[in-house]
Amino acid sequence: MSTTTSTTTAPAWHDVTASATDRAEALLTELTLEEKIAQLFGVWVGASSEGGDVAPHQNDMDDVVDLDALLPNGLGQLTRPFGSAPVDPALGALSLLRSQRRIAASNRFGIPAVAHEECLAGFATWGATAYPVPLAWGASFNPGLIERMSHRIGSDMRSVGIHQGLAPVLDVVRDARWGRVEETIGEDPYLIGTIGTAYVRGLESAGIVATLKHFVGYSASKAGRNLAPVSVGPRELADVLLVPFEMVVRDGRPRSVMHSYTDVDGVPSAADESLLTGVLRDTWGFDGTVVADYFGIAFLKLLHGVAGSWGEAAALALTAGVDVELPTVKTFGAPLAEAVRSGDLPEAVIDRALRRVLRQKVELGLLDPDWDATPEALRGVDVDNAEGIRGTVDLDSAANRAVAREIAEQSIVLVSNDGTLPLAAPCRIAVVGPTTDDPFAVLGCYSFPAHVGVQHPDTSLGIELPTLLESLRTEFPEADIEYVPGTTIDGGETAGISAAVDAATRADVVIVALGDRAGLFGRGTSGEGCDVESLRLPGAQQDLLDAVLATSTPAVVTLLAGRPYALGSAVTGAGAIVQAFFAGEEGTAALAGILSGRVNPSGRLPVSIPASEGTQPSTYLAAPLARSNGVSSIDPTAAFAFGHGIGYTTFDWSAGQHGPDTVGVDGTATLGLRLRNTGDRSGTEIVQIYVHDPVASVVRPVQRLVGFQRVDLEPGESVELSIHVPADVTGFTGRNGARVVEPGEIVLALGASSTDLRITHSVQLSGDARVVGFDRSFHPSFNEIARSTS
Fold it and tell me: What is the pLDDT of residue 5?
């Protein structure tokens, strides 16, 4: 497989006893310029030509890849061998096996490629489990559960030969009109960093290279428009947008980062050396690879106008710190070689990126002398019998579905309830609304069926996607269920509303099923490139909702959506509101279980639900002047705030033993909490810690989440907690640009949401202002002192 100049001594890069750095260096010295560059790009030979783009400006990049010409120099990456078209998983693994053998046999040193895939809400391939979207992960407030999920995703990917996953998204929601809100974990940096760390740990523990994205600022685009410029100050960048990446780089140990498409204050992320090298590597010590978002390097010329040629774009990106061009070769091929030969780019810049790429290939075992392209799923089978292995790989196992169901159940938020829920076996249920009988209503835009499958309508979905209507009929087998759609998701039709009203009038209870359809670049109401002008429900859904609420029938509003929407009359007029964020293939069963009471809801809002359609951009991380006041006629107060959610039991909160009222700026404050389940069924309370800084040297948010803990209690059971909050979590970027913990009063609050604070404790931080850095404490600790049942 490998050709060397010696017949007696194994090449140094095959020495498994040597360090990854030494092995990479040994191979680097043997490569020609063209062979070096070949390791720095991917190819996308499986990109679909049937239908719309699956990446921005895909059709603008019409270069034909000639593999026969490329492969003798080697290849860095294979782009989405499973995720570009429907393929049986076993046959996909076989195809990748053959591709890897061809790649290794074609170059002088037998170097295979890294194969990467999307895995935002599960392995994005035909037949793989569709888990809830990241916004639902945030709603679960359960890092351990998300780590279990991502380990399963990574294990499935690794079993068929994939090495790298393009997830998680760590963008902080700043404007809910942005189409990619569904891909985020929420609007709070701490929640995102904690859940994101768990996701990365799970994926990496399965042997998959996790890729943080989009670094950085993408979600803060002007007017919530995809790829729009970003205008944020250095303090918002440091204290909001960068924080989740900082947390996950340190505590999750990911091996890759993807740059953002956007420019921040006129500097595109793909060409920002201060960001990709200064912050990421020099300050945070990240030593993995930086990969391009799809076509992002070419965009330096095509969209940003900071490069005059493809070679200039390549040189800008490499100099900034981008190591790998994805999804396919455009600028890192001949234009890059010419830039080096002309003297416009030192070859040392190529070598710097190559060291990282080769070191990662060493760590993945791709340069081991016994490397075998055969993935785990195909070991022990006859790989020459393609039809014989069809259907032998299961990427949607019962164990996967069990985890997907658990996340769905824990992430659905009971937003309001006047006692209508749980439904006590009603005789007549009317179900109206466009997400009632739509199997796609539970899927985000990066699920395979919504992302790629829609371009192949003659191919089956590959997984079971029961509609809400089907799940309701299963959940309430004795009920007479009448279904009337009323309108479509975004068509604006109103002719069917009167029939929906008639059905509601005849029923004991009406379920109004509303929400989104995920898609790409305007082909949906949520998803990449599906930005909106306001947070009014799409189409005529608000008209349908208002008409049904005007009847005297108790109404339950359910939402299967990718973003929060203003709900108008439902806030006060609905008997109950249940919010699900694209809850995956087990989502409708989970939602039906919450309506029946089989499941006690425990989700909390990772994003605020607005009271008005037009108050964006808005976030709970608001300074005093960003809140309701007497000098503006616009009230941005949310209808339901970040962290809010209720269940079918009640909890009593009381203060426990607090620590001293004064601690040092390098010390730890202690809060005591007694929590008791006062209801008649088991339930989960999510204890949230917020910090308020009454006087600071710069303007601060009124409340900011700094910790949380899920607490499960049986009826009558109580628990006493001692919560230790390091002063480090109060830090912020001061006037001189350094992150500082300032002396003075800090108010710590324990609450059920950002606006429902049950216990507060004022602490005086003493001493001189203290600068903290990358090694600072991020998390409080929760210690259980006692548990009892009354």
Answer: 44
